[in-house]
Amino acid sequence: MHKVIAKKCSSYDIPKIKNAIDSIFTKTDFYxxxxxxxxxxxxxxxxxAYPPDRAITTHPNLVAAVIEILKDHKIAISLMDNPxxxxxxxxxxxxxxxxxLAKLYGITLINPVKxxxxxxxxxxxxxxxxxxxxxxxxxxxxxxxxxxxxxxxxAIKNFYGIIPGLAKSNLHRLAPNxxxxxxxxxxxxxxxxxxxxxxxxxxxxxMDGNGPSTGDVKKFNLVLGSKNxxxxxxxxxxxxxxxxxxxxxxxxxxxxxxxxxxxFKLSGDFEENFVxxxxxxxxxxxxxxxxxxxxxxxxxxxxxxFWTIPYxxxxxxxQCKACVKFCPGKALTLDANDLAPKLDTQKCILCMCCVxxxxxxxxxxxxxxxxxxxxxxxxxxxx
Length: 383
Ligand code: SF4
Ligand code: SF4
What we know:
Blueprint: E1 2-8, H1 14-27, H2 31-35, E2 39-44, H3 60-72, E3 76-79, H4 89-95, H5 98-105, E4 108-109, E5 117-121, E6 125-129, H6 130-134, E7 138-147, E8 151-153, H7 165-174, H8 178-192, E9 196-208, E10 216-226, H9 229-240, H10 248-257, E11 264-268, H11 282-293, H12 299-305, E12 308-312, H13 322-326, E13 332-333, E14 342-343, H14 353-357, E15 363-367, H15 369-382
Parallel strand pairs: 1-11, 2-3, 2-7, 3-4, 7-9
Antiparallel strand pairs: 1-10, 5-6, 7-8, 9-10, 12-15, 13-14
One iron/sulfur cluster (SF4) is lined by residues 310, 327-329, 331-332, 343, 348-354.
């Protein structure tokens, strides 16, 4: 039986979060493990260099609450993540509030540039930052958000961050559809899973709509935790309104590990059938459906009528070139006089990385008339 504890928590007041996490650790019998550890590496979701109120990254006060509990147990603490693309990790540490935490609590922030790598061969060749593999134990501090490409992003997807920024681009190129990409994410989780001592999800303020970076900031008022990342994702995604068994990353991980969803047990402040009343998952479901359709073998024919392409808004673009440098399909160019990147539609693999990476929200998806009709019809049939 894999326990998941979900606690109500309506603010980022550190003592309140600490109480919630203390209850989660107690009810999952995590304290005996914690007491046996001398060091822990914290793995927040630092997708990019964003301030905490954008709800893209794990909130620093939740990280602070965990740090205070670990310090009470005299555990040495370090923290690391690899943001997406060419974003500087040190800048991400600064803007997300992690740098302040390091100064306040004396924890170590690991700079990936100075950290080595290991490589693993599974469905692809994976380059992994050494610190995660060398850690005595990892506490996963994920964020509750929708995701256009993977539907939902929570505990397991957070481990995609053990791959250094630009190496992620190559993996997207090798996995040009959501299902293949989910297999890669599960491979990566399998590389690290023995090191993962505990998983928490920051759902106090999360994101719905077009997550993981361009969606809507929503107050969900909860913190969830489990020793088991799959069980945690099962309930967190269910709370958002998803059918967890239809989320490829959750399904593939459970299949590979031979886990039965009936072996997951929820307790805490919420009932088994609880669904967040204000959570919009339709936008990510629509985008995911269209991306799946456009990456099937008949894509040439389908694309003619049901196309979707990234659109780069010249009024919002600041010509930073982050998307151009990262683009796995090498489909973007930005010349000196351009106001926004130019797209080569033949090269675009619809990975959505440009949407995810752009800090200015300058990238959106343009759909054909028939594409919009199809998605609306699909939604109506589900109603
Ligand atoms: S679209 Fe966004 S990421 Fe790309 S160059 Fe413009 S501002 Fe930078
Ligand atoms: S243009 Fe955007 S969606 Fe297309 S391949 Fe490049 S990053 Fe991916």
